[in-house]
Write a structure and sequence with these properties.
single chain, about 280 residues, alpha+beta, Heat Shock Protein 90, Actin, Chain A, domain 4, 2 domains, 3-stranded antiparallel sheet, 5 helices
Length: about 280
Amino acid sequence: MKNLIAAMALSALMVVSCKKTENSSTEAVTNDSVHANTFTVDSVKVNDSLKLSDSLTVKYSSTMLVFPDIKDKTLLDSIYFGQKNISDFSKSGIQAWLEKDKKDYFNNIKKDSKDWISDMNFSQEWYSDTGMKLKSKLNDYIHIQYVWGSYEGGAHDNYGFSERMFDLKNNKKLQLKDITTMSKAKIEAMLRKNINKINSGTTDSNGTVNNSEMLLVDVVPATENFYFDEKNLYFHYSPYEIAAFAAGDITIPISWTELKGTINPEFEKRMQIIY
């Protein structure tokens, strides 16, 4: 099933559960995949599991990137937009924040489950799994993907993605208006037209991509959840955002050629776009 595949896709951020009542580890990891122009990326990972009862085990797993070469606080605040009250962006500061976030998660689960946990009549494993991944560094633009997954009872896991592009030259998060002047309505028309160009796992009996058959919306919105490479601008939609859960997450490309004449000249030059 699609949700099982998605959960497996998140397993790179998760650690197999331990049999002990509590198991905790903190690991600082160096990401060697992107080292250009002295740009260094590290990461900190925190894993913990807690057995609340014979029927319920809870896991916490989170991986956050660390950028020792980025000094601009406004840019760092934007990079860690989903994490409140981070003031120390060093590796030790991020690690301390994760440890606190882990404790808060376990405490909240304990508090919320105290009135009914004794009534659970079958074993369950709940989890919270979040992560950051540096997907690319291109012409001093970096693409960071934020992933989350969770299960706290119910029919299936939940998961989602957030894509953000950052401009290292100008110390800011890129917005769609920094890339193209094309109207939102025209972009949305292109998104609807291109929805079946990338396989999300939803195909018909002939193996043809068929994302459009599971749409829940009439208009595919042009959101700020985008990224780009040398060829295309991509919009990424999490489950339920535009389609049924069974469709999974959907990525829709719009080529630079389709946006020709509306691309910001400075961006076009810096990306060396050739039509």
